[in-house]
Write a structure and sequence with these properties.
five-stranded mixed β-sheet, 21 helices, 60s Ribosomal Protein L30, Chain: A, 433 residues, alpha+beta
Length: 433
Amino acid sequence: MDIIDFIKDTKYEDLDIDVIEEAKKCLLDTVGVCIIGSRTELSKIVNNFSKKYYSGDDANSFGHKTKMSQMGALFTSSMSTDAFDMHDGHVLTKGHAGVSIIPAALILHNSKIVSGKELLTNIVVGYEIAIRAGIALHGSTDDYHSSGAWNSLGVCAIACRILDLDKEKIRHALGICEFYAPRAQMMKVIDNPTMLKDGSGFGAFVGLKAALLAKEGFTGMPSLLITSKETKKYWKDLGKKYEIKRQYFKSYPVCRWAQPSIEAIKSLNAKYTINSNQIKKITIKTFHEATRLNNKMPKNTEEAQYSLKYPVILTLLGEDITENIVKNNFSTNKEMNKLFKKVQIKEKKVFSKSFPAKRLASITIDMIDGNSYKSGSKEAIWGENDSPSYNQIRDKFFKLCKHALTKQTAEKIENFIYDCENLEDIKSISSLI
């Protein structure tokens, strides 16, 4: 299917029920993450910034409910979602679409009423354009770039639909967006965790701005990720095969790269009774990129979310990772410090070769008494082949929202999303977030 036709003409009735249901899962999951992410210091800084420099009264920043322009609300809400690393992703993009797509679909309206069916359709279109652009970008360059480099194109596609741009202007909008999108250096953030995160807030910002510029007649075509011969293969089954169905979801608010190691230590906890005081050495073997995660005792939430040792040790001790990160409880007790010193992290070449299609890790715990416990290779849960049900995502949503919303408000949001296709106006959702 022609890419511009797909963006311009796709309707709710064109989508199969399983695609719609996946869009609902992504919507509920991302809203929950955005709500809890709005409590971070990163989100508070960005919200104050947007209130000051993107003032207006046609949108609310999610989690803060601060009146500002749609540009400011989109930037803030995308940054808030990115602030809490528990949002969905796609293995072949090595990043995240929903972090910017969901805020865009909920916030952008161009002074018109958007129905629930339109919302779900915009989400599907945004995910498909973003994910395929991400795979194409990774396939055409060696650098490991931020999600904002390609999820911006999904936001741009949604904005073009909301603005009802003609096909020629959509082409220009995508070209503008691709040119200006933030191809940030992700390994810099992995090596030095800060509030920079994954570039998705700036990606959303560029995607909307590109569509608005194209509406005014600004030119920028072509988008090489979409039109070049080298990337044509990534788009050939557009409208027939839906990449949104291949999303993974996160059960912990840490980098996906650390989650196979968490599953490895969980499997050992389930099989053995391990006295942490009797541990001689813990060896984590994983793929190269995961070895680059922060391995110092975290001092803030950014360092904790990009850590490998920290969530593994928390799990070993029976602690809830999400609760500790939500409460900024970065322990410096003697037991934690002792275990940190006993952990060795090694690259396993066969795991590195499997990345990004597979993220694998194994853990061996050597005890002082000579016993040795081995996990075998493990993958993160809730991937494409064991995708969580809507009810599992619902449980995750309520767990996250209990820190930020009343139970009544959380239930209203979930009910609206569950029955989304029957909503006449999605403001019934967005006004509650």
